[in-house]
Amino acid sequence: MIPRTLLDKENGGDGDPLDILVLGPPAERGSIISCKLIGVLYLKDRGERDDKLIAVAADSPFDNLKSIKELDANFQGVSEIITTWFSNYKGPDMMQAFGFGDARAANKVLEQAIREYNTEK
Question: Using 50, 70 and 90 to split pLDDT, how confident is the model at 114?
Answer without folding.
Answer: very high
